[in-house]
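We modelled the chain as a single entity of 667 amino acids. Its sequence is:
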Amino acid sequence: MNKTNKELANAIRFLSIDAVQKANSGHPGMPMGMADVATILFKYFLNFDPKNPNWLNRDRFVLSAGHGSMLLYSLLYLTGYKSVNLTDIKNFRQLDSICAGHPEYHPNTGIETTTGPLGQGISNAVGFAIAEEILKSKIGKKILNHKTYVLAGDGCLMEGISHEALSLAGHLKLKNLILLFDNNSISIDGPTSLAVSDNHRKRFNSYGWEFLEINGHNEKEIFKSLKKAQLSKKPTAISCKTIIGYGSPNKSGKETAHGSPLGDEEINLVRKKLKWKYKPFEIPDKILAEWRSIGDKASKKAKHHQSFFKKELSKYNWLDSDISNNIHKKFLQKNSSEKKIFYSKIDKVKKEYLNSLEPMATRKCSEKFLEILSKLPNIIGGSADLAGSNNTKTKEHKIIKPGNYSGNYIHYGVREHAMCGVMNGISLHSSLIPYGGTFLIFSDYCKPSIRLAAMMKLRVIYVMTHDSIGLGEDGPTHQPIEQLASLRSIPNLNVFRPSDIIETFECWQLALENQNTPSVIALTRQKINPVRKKNSSTNLSAMGGYEIFRSNNKINLTILSSGSETSLACEISHKLATENIYSKVISMPCQELFDQQNKNYRSEILNETDLIVSIEASETNFWKKYTGNKGLNFGINRFGKSAPYKDIYNDFELNVENITKKIKKKL
């Protein structure tokens, strides 16, 4: 490294060292090891704008190795982002500091995504790269043409999600994706040789990636590899052989530099070795001015691009063309002609169905909605090799293929882990709205990404079919029992389980219009009888739960249900009425939305009768907050069975006869 670049890199190192030491918590080793690579990247290659962090055509920089978060915070401060100041750096890992222990996504700050669970950042980066290619195909490479850089460590590459995401990226030939591998051969337990002996070159080459190997502390090699990656026709991985804790006389190259502060004595030794004569958190004016100059040059370059193409961007009303503001990811503009056409088509399909009232699986109902939705330019669908089963692909969809990104549907393959992480990246990138399908049972594979989407307040939609024992013969390995309860336990996630086509359309609309909450739409494989036999100008599902049937003005009990069990609840209510036992049925397609309603509404639903009953073909505990200790909960608290679905429902006593009998006994 020449003297100037070495000093620039050392500024990153010592901000990271000092912040971790002051917090008495953190990971100094990675920022110390990758400071040289980061310096060359930001100085010579990265397109960014500290004055407008949400500039649409910026390069994305994703820190998948999120434990090294001080690398990112140091770079944001040094290059002049207003989101991170020196006080924030000093408050690393403290309450409400933007400088958290792992990067936490905040719009318009330079922090592109929340990372922490290793490998998630890689899948997010693949999503960013896919989104860039999709938009580039729509609005032209003069307006949009940028790279996604992802910094990953040994741990990221050990996690299985990395295999899925990297394989997909290679298949799609995402040449705009560059992975910087911090190949320091150290993990928390010690040398990575304790657990890994992968041939990384062969691994990446088998995915269809370019693979370059460099000394991560050699300026010429770093520059040359990044230069070569700009021209690659494939995604590129650059293996940067680095020394973790670079500059530490006693801890560099060891696991002791990984996840703990260096200690005051060792930090003094690092200062002597790297000839850094400054106090903690002190960056000399000359070095800070050089870093700010890098930020200013990048900002001027970005501003030129923004002013030149602002008029062209304004033509795309579905894209947030006001690039000076936060991207608010609008769905359809209020009172726009597109919105009127869209909703008129929805009403037409509803009316056609209400004329027939034929039994229909809600996965098929969802497909009918997607036939309308897929014509919108910012909707990107997909499925984990289950398109025919999830009904997520319609005749209106066009496939996104290697080298051809003009479509609107992604075949993710059998890659649920990666699919959901990729969708997070697509959502974060711009105004695209991703949805992806799998079976509800496989939400267990998806949950880490779903959790992060909820944390980041992303509009990501998960279409999860085969939502109960109603899927039948595939048996207990495919029949969800505890999955709905597991998903409902995630904060800021709406779990929808509609009961027919009207509710399915309403739930889809709610998922699309909620800009800050991801949604799971759980759908049946089996056909079910309709319960809503009249259209409504009001989206009743928006209440989360509402009265769908009432057998008398004066009632003895309240029946709560969702999905396929709502028609069963109505049958039970009819049956009880023949014996002068009257009830109301509450369809509850979304518990989360119901819990957000005001106290009076919830009281009107829940406090009319002493006895409250819940019916859902899943684990029952989540219903007890409504039914109380005196209520009845009909569901399933053990694993399913392999048989035709009607036989299984009878075996679990989820039928009119059994439930009616037990309700009468309770009354």
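As a brief sanity check on the tokenised model: The mean pLDDT is 95. The longest helix spans residues 285-313.
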